[in-house]
Amino acid sequence: MDTPLSARRLADTAALLADPTRAAICLALLDGRAWTAGELARHAAVAAPTATGHLNRLVAAGLLAEERQGRHRYLRLAGPTAAELVEVLAQFTGGPPPVATSLRAARQSGELARARTCYDHLAGALGVTVTGAMTARGLLDDRHGLALTPAGADWLTATGITVAPARRAAVRACLDFTERRPHLAGAVGAALCAHALTAGWLERRPDSRAVRVTATGERALHDLLGVRWADVLPTR
């Protein structure tokens, strides 16, 4: 039976992300990389001392992890569990996406909706399309929740994708907050994303979670999964 103390701790954790600045910081860190405190302050459009106070609270609560290199302080999400918490909350934002107020904002919004990282796995129209193609080819089974099939395990090996041992689930369906359909997460999703970046199939866009599919990636997507990058377009 839950105790008043448990309820209070839950409320305190939820309150951490009820602040727009802390929410902006956590959403930025969903790109899976470590950011400096200064970069996060600029991203959240707050002064450095203000950002420091917010970052200290997030670190103390275990949502962020930090490391120091020289005079720089780097911060990242504490791990997959923290990222999943932010992802799940993002799914409950509801309503239509905000209207872009400039051509630059519209371009950035379109890039994020088309292809981005969601902590350590692929999201957006690309993530959903890749997940659908893997399911259609029998590499994933979605009949009783998303699962990797034996054919999928063989495909990973043949493609040179190594799934690192981890305490997290091997495969997890993550509801994409722009497509409103699931994309592949978990250890397999992370391994696929890491391989795509290392092999040069994808390139990160600067200062954004958006990624771009390279010419090499276009060929790989088509040859391995029958996906044409030109057809990968956001539905919203």
Question: Would you mind describing this structure in some detail?
Answer:
- This protein is an alpha+beta fold and 236 residues long.
- It is 48% helix and 16% strand.
- The chain has 10 helices and 11 strands.
- The N and C termini lie far apart (42 Å).
- The model has no long low-confidence stretch (mean pLDDT 88).
Largest sheet: 3 strands, antiparallel
State the end-to-end CA separation: 42 Å
Q: What's the count of strands?
A: 11
Proportion of residues in β-strands? 15-25%
Radius of gyration: 19 Å
Gist?
The chain has helices at 4-16, 20-28, 37-44, 48-60, 80-91, 103-114, 124-136, 150-159, 186-198, 215-225, and strands at residues 35-36, 64-69, 72-77, 116-118, 121-123, 140-141, 147-148, 172-175, 182-185, 202-204, 211-213.
Using brief descriptors, characterize the structure shown.
10 helices, two-stranded antiparallel ribbon, globular, alpha+beta, 236 residues, single chain, 3-stranded antiparallel beta sheet
Record the SSE blueprint:
Elements: H1 4-16, H2 20-28, E1 35-36, H3 37-44, H4 48-60, E2 64-69, E3 72-77, H5 80-91, H6 103-114, E4 116-118, E5 121-123, H7 124-136, E6 140-141, E7 147-148, H8 150-159, E8 172-175, E9 182-185, H9 186-198, E10 202-204, E11 211-213, H10 215-225
